[in-house]
Amino acid sequence: MLPIPAHPAYGTDFGEHTFDCAAGFTRKGDWRKNRLPVLAREALKDVRVDARPSRLPDAGDWGVRLDTEDAAVTALKQAHRGSGLIVRIQSFGERRVTLSLPGRDIEKAFLADALERDIKTLPVEKGEVAVPLAGALTTVRLLLKE
Q1: What single string gives the DSSP state of each residue in 38-78?
Q2: Which of 51, 54, 82, 128 is least enclosed by beta carbons within 10 angstroms?
Q3: How far apart are CA 88 and CA 112, in angstroms?
Q4: Per residue in 89-130, pLDDT tens?
Q5: Does residue 70 contact residue 93 with C-beta atoms inside 8 Å?
Q6: What is the rounded CA–CA span in Å between residue 143 and residue 60?
């Protein structure tokens, strides 16, 4: 049995399963110095799972700009709860990122939970939002100017 830290599934399933994994060797230094999240995204961008492309678009493909490549946009969608857009940001080391939507005017921004409930208002300055990152996945709700 191979333990997989932070795996979201639990319980017992006696069916047959497959699990693909790989090991990579890095230079001296920790995961930040070796930029492992960036290398992992690059290595996985062409992987296919269940005949669907699992490649997550780069932030620029979503029309979202982040000020660091050590964080990635994993979703951009219409808000299910409330109005506006939901942006999900994955990061394993950054404490804060600056988010913008070039060509679009952000009117308001809210830090939200995974259920898209607003936690607090985030200041918008010159079309950019400073987003505090508390964990590996952060949700932001954006209201755009009409």
Answers
A1: HHHHHHHTT-EETTEE-PPPPHHHHT-EES-TTEEEEEEEE
A2: 51
A3: 10
A4: 988 777 899 999 998 899 999 999 989 999 999 999 999 999
A5: yes
A6: 19
Distance CA 94, CA 133 (A): 7
- For the residues 53-66, what does the mean pLDDT come to? 62
Q: pLDDT by residue (tens digit) across 64-91?
A: 999 988 888 888 999 998 899 999 998 8
Distance CA 75, CA 140 (A): 10
Mapped onto helix, strand or coil, the DSSP state of residue 115 is: coil
The token pair at 134 is 């508390």
**How many whole angstroms separate alpha carbon 45 and alpha carbon 78?**
24
8: left (phi over 0), alpha (psi -120 to 50) or beta: alpha
Q: Among all chains, which residue has been given the structure tokens 């069916």?
A: 15
